[in-house]
Amino acid sequence: MQPRLIAVVVLVLLAVASLIVPAITDVVPNEPGAFSLRGKFIGPHAGEDAAAVAGLCFEVADCIEWDGKQSEPMLTTGTAFAELRRRARELRLHGQSIGDRQPHAREAIRDWLNVAVGVNGGPVDDEDRTKWVKAFRDVGEAARDALK
Question: Which domain holds residue 77?
Answer without folding.
Answer: 30-146
